[in-house]
Specification:
Elements lengths: L1 H4 L10 E11 L12 E9 L4 H4 L6 E7 H6 L1 H17 L2 E5 L2 E5 L1 E7 L2 H8 L35 H13 L4 H4 L23 H23 L5 H10 L28 H15 L8 H16 L1
Parallel strand pairs: 1-6
Antiparallel strand pairs: 1-2, 2-3, 4-5
């Protein structure tokens, strides 16, 4: 639906769809006060026109920008300007692609830019606070209301018109930032076809693989342990004997610590957590009573991830 209604792609359905992804990483492992000193910000992109089975391959993920994170936060508009200028040219002038004896004019445009919630709010121009005030870039939910309502129709969604009103309001009075949860205009809104309320989708790796999924797995294991259906040691024994497929051998989950029964989180990379979630029924389902509510929650989570993927 978004593609069909997009100001650019509706007119150029064969144009290249560029999906950007922003992430930060440490090039060293500093401790204490030196932490974040050497953090680097990277913006990658992939072409959405290629088949889905190729998009996750590293050879199809390209680097568009690499900059020190502290500089990116302070001078984002200046740093992004060359990138924005190139995106404008790709959508207006395009480039020539020669194939055999023919030359084709190819256009391209930014379809989306994603990242973890903190980075997405930083680039989108929203307030970067999730403990108070307006915490969402998709709706006007507050930190308190998210615990009271659970349906979309209970919240006011951020639309192009609503967002424009908020930007105009903070220009007139900067104190309105706290009211609307908006600090400034998104640099990518400089592109005539881009809309930050639609072009900044959730990031599955952070929200699901490193967010909801390990939390659900932890709660299921804790509940199974407390109800004496299966101990953490027994889960580890099943895990050590489980035969991992060829595609997941590099992402085999590590042994679980009994600390998760208290306040510790499940350790491992996003790929390891995703692998553990998928093989969990093979490890513990035979020991869990079919009527268990916590297991039904896990099964519902699996259905949701199947739909999302």
């Amino acid at each position: 639906m978004y593609f069909k209604e997009h100001p650019f792609f509706a007119k150029h359905p064969d144009a290249l769809r560029l999906h950007f992804y922003e992430d930060e990483f440490e090039v060293v492992n500093p401790l204490g006060s030196k932490r974040n000193k050497h953090k680097v910000c990277a913006i990658y992109y992939t072409v959405g026109n290629i088949d889905v089975k190729y998009r996750s391959q590293l050879k199809h993920i390209h680097l568009a920008l690499l900059v020190k994170h502290s500089m990116f936060k302070q001078h984002m508009d200046i740093i992004l300007k060359p990138l924005l200028d190139e995106l404008k040219l790709l959508s207006t002038d395009g480039f020539d692609l020669k194939f055999s004896d023919e030359t084709f004019k190819v256009f391209a445009a930014l379809a989306s830019i994603s990242g973890d919630n903190l980075s997405a709010h930083m680039i989108g121009g929203f307030t970067m606070s999730f403990n108070s005030g307006r915490i969402c870039r998709y709706c006007m939910a507050t930190h308190s209301s998210k615990n009271e309502f659970f349906c979309e129709d209970k919240f006011i969604l951020r639309t192009s018109a609503v967002h424009k009103y908020h930007l105009d309001s903070i220009k007139e009075n900067p104190n309105n930032t706290a009211i609307y949860g908006v600090e400034r205009i998104c640099p990518f809104d400089e592109l005539s076809y881009f809309d930050v309320t639609k072009g900044s989708p959730p990031d599955l790796m952070h929200d699901l693989l490193e967010g909801v999924i390990p939390l659900v797995v932890k709660l299921v294991l804790c509940k199974a342990h407390r109800d004496k259906h299966m101990t953490i040691q027994e889960v580890n024994a099943e895990l050590s004997q489980f035969s991992i497929g060829q595609n997941d051998r590099a992402n085999k989950p590590s042994q679980l610590s009994e600390k998760i029964l208290h306040n510790s989180n499940i350790s491992g990379s996003a790929s390891q957590k995703w692998c553990l979630f998928r093989i969990l029924p093979f490890l513990i389902a035979q020991r869990i009573p079919p009527c268990s509510k916590y297991w039904n929650v896990c099964l519902l989570c699996r259905e949701i991830t199947d739909i999302v993927n």
